[in-house]
Amino acid sequence: MRWVRNFTFMSGIIFIGIFTYQFLQSEKLQNDSMQEAETRIAANKEAQSNPDTFKVNENEAFSTLEIPKLGKEIPVVEGTDADALSKGIGHLSQSVLPGQGEQIVLSGHRDTVFREFNKIEIGDTFIVHMPYGSYSYVIKDTEIVDEDDTSVIREMGEEVLVVTTCYPFRFVGNAPERFVAYAYPVQNTN
């Protein structure tokens, strides 16, 4: 019986060590991405770039998403693969950027960048800080869809910021659904 207790104790220590390492690694990657995004924003503001000429490379941090209700500002990285999502919020490359008049899709993990997303409600705002200006959006609708439902990615005929994360928020493991927030422009705050 003693070996079972020792094995359980050691397994717990190993699990805590792995979790701590992954958490610290995630924080470091996000901090590095935030510095990269802030540098890009500052450099391009001086060059006075605009939405139509702005270019970004895959896995590059180029923007930030501010969520005033949560008191957070998070880096936005081009792409939605595992590498991009480990660095911050991913921008779906097939969608447009703020100021380009169509659907903008941002995604992030519920247990890292969107840890407190369960507090988000209709009427809350998102502010996207781009190298060519800042764009404010108000959440007007939310929905929960199946994890395989791609119908939320579509042409909308107007500028809409779509922010997605896994759902339920406190689910352990791969979540079966996605929480989707639809936010519409308030004003361009360049």
UniProtKB/TrEMBL annotation:
Species annotation: Bacillus kandeliae
Family matches, as InterPro entries: Sortase, Sortase_D, Sortase_D_1, Sortase_dom-sf
Domain of life: Bacteria
Keywords, in A-Z order: Hydrolase, Membrane, Transmembrane, Transmembrane helix
Transmembrane segments: 7-24
A matching Pfam family: Sortase
SUPFAM superfamilies: Sortase
Record protein name field: Class D sortase
